[in-house]
Every structure is written in structure tokens, then in C-alpha cells.
Amino acid sequence: MVRKTKEAAQATKEALIDAAEQVFRREGVSRTSLAEIAAEAGVTRGAIYWHFRDKAELLDAMCARTVLPLDAAFARAGDAARADPLGTLRKLAVDALAQLARDPRTQAVFEILFHKCELVGELAQRNAAQHVDRSECLCTVEHLFELAIARDQLPPDTDTRLCTNMMHAYVIGLMHEWVLDPQAYDLLSAAPVMIDTFVAGLETRPPRKAADARDVSAVDAAAG
């Protein structure tokens, strides 16, 4: 009996998260009420408060059950990062885009977070959590760029911080725009080409640390 009760409670919780995902995506997070989510799930509003304190906690649960693309990619990096850092970065980015292209739930969560969610008021805590996640992501990427220098894949004076922010902006920008119009192009097939183009640019002409502008001009003139 206890097991059946626990299973029923878990089923209700999942139904509420499913309903929240649907209503958030349709109406936007700030314009959605808990009553609307309860109605979508076919339960009473009291059932929501049994499982979730507020809308912010429900949003967190929705995000937590979906392994976001970059998180999953970093978890799979493993020892390959030390042997081929740039190759690992390339694979991480391609895999992240591929997961987004393949998985409807990931697409739904990204659409909500990018385009249907104002992180203010009761959702301000989610903004803080995203900031922490972003910082951890950037640290991991910058470490891989530092390994790329150690493996002579990039020049010693490469500005790894700028490389990191460039790559993050490029990948997140692709995700941000694609979820607006998934029919615009086939992200799954385009991902390798788009990431290869970006990585090739870094290999050919990476940003350098605090170089004197006149020295850079002289190098460019010599190269021309």
C-alpha cells in the first residue's frame, strides 16, 4: 500500500511538471498561475503545494529532470580532454547542439528559459542558479583552452578568457536562435560544420593577450 501511495505521488508530481512545461511554453512563466498548471494536470491546486512550494520551485524541477546539453557534454568529456583539448571542445559543442536538435524536452526547456521566462520576483533565485551554472561552464571551457596551449594546439599568448567567452556566446547564440525557429535549418546536420568553422578560426587567428596594437599591426603588415 505504501509503495502504491509513493508511486501515485510521484506520478502526480511528474504530471505537474509536464503540465507546467506545457503552460510555461504556451503562456510564458510570469503569466502562468499555479491554478492554470493544476487545471492542465487535472488536479487540485492543493496538489501543487503538496509537491512544490511555489512556481520557482516548479520551474527548478522542470529544469532538473532535463540534462541540459552542455552539462551532459561536459560529463562525457573524460580523459579525451587531456589528449586533444581542441578536439574535445569541438565534440562538446557539437554534442550539445545535437542533443538540442534531437530531444523535444530539451527544446521545450530551452525555449522556456530563453524566451518565456523573466527571472525577476519569485524567479530571481533561478537567475542566481543560472549564474552559478554559467560560471562553472566557463571555467571548464577555459581549462580546456589552457590545455590546448599546453598541447601546442594554440599559441602560448592566446587569450583563453576571451576564447571562452567567444565560444560560449557562439554556442548559446546558436541555441537561442534555433529554438525560435527549428524549421529554419537542420541543426543536427549543420552543427559539425558550424562548430568546425568556429574552431578553425581560433586555430588560424586566436585572440592574443594584451598585445601592443602597433606590434599587431606590424605582424599583420608582414603577413600581408
Structure description:
The chain is an all-alpha fold. It folds into two domains: 2-63, Arc Repressor Mutant, subunit A; 66-211, Tetracycline Repressor, domain 2, CATH 1.10.357.10. Helix content is 75%, strand content 0%. It contains twelve helices and no strands. The chain has helices at 2-27, 34-41, 45-51, 55-64, 69-75, 80-83, 85-102, 104-115, 124-150, 160-178, 187-204, 213-223. The model has no long low-confidence stretch (mean pLDDT 84).
Give the proportion of residues in helices: over 70%
According to DSSP, the number of beta strands is 0
Q: Structurally, how many domains make up the residues?
A: 2
Q: Assign the CATH topology of the largest domain.
A: Tetracycline Repressor, domain 2
Structural class: mainly alpha
Ranges with pLDDT <50 over ≥5 residues? Answer: none
- Straight-line distance between termini: 79 Å
Largest sheet: none
Tally of contiguous helical segments: 12
Considering the protein shown, what is the CATH homologous superfamily of the largest domain? Answer: Tetracycline Repressor, domain 2
Order of helices and strands: HHHHHHHHHHHH
User: What is the level 1 CATH name of the largest domain?
Assistant: Mainly Alpha
- Report the principal-axis shape: elongated
Overall mean pLDDT stands at 84
